[in-house]
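Encode chain A's predicted structure.
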Amino acid sequence: MSISAKPIWGFTPPGGWHYYESDVRLDAITLDGLYETVTNYRAENHLPLGDVEGDVNSFLCSNSPSHCHGVDMVAITSVAAQTSTSELLQDITIWARNLAGSRNQHLLVSDDLAEQRAKICKTCPNNVAWKAGCASCIVAANRLSTSLRQARDTQTSKTLGGCRQLRHDNRTAIFFDRSHFTAPADLNPHCWLNQY
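Encoded structure for chain A:
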């Protein structure tokens, strides 16, 4: 295996370049722009920076060998399926629409309690990014979720993603009274639904 496989400099595929960080798709028009986007994403999400250029080059040349030099020497790596983030986005949209369409009153908790819950969510492995893919879908889901929580936020809530297990927007869910949730039997024991 050699690290000499590199994307063709100056070439831009139709639609630009993309890279998957776990199940989040990162896009840029130029190759330098993609390196910068990946670096920024990792920094903003407190991920190890690692070898951004090497990771991106390996991904690009493994998945689009015709866009690279020295492809015969690159290792082929598996890439996480892109459907999980889009499925979570869809589930969050449905969850938010169901809440918005409910005739029941939305009972909200105090900012202090929401912040305690947010701190638990922030460290949970089920708290994952969900804002990737269809831009207009993200805007619609985000707008609806913001409306449901009455545009409230805490210091920690702004950093939350979606719950992979309960399929809701954590940033919004932490503001709702527990009566709005039905916890499954296999719920993570550290989840705030078990505590607050």
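The helical segments are 31-44, 52-63, 83-101, 111-123, 135-148, 170-173.
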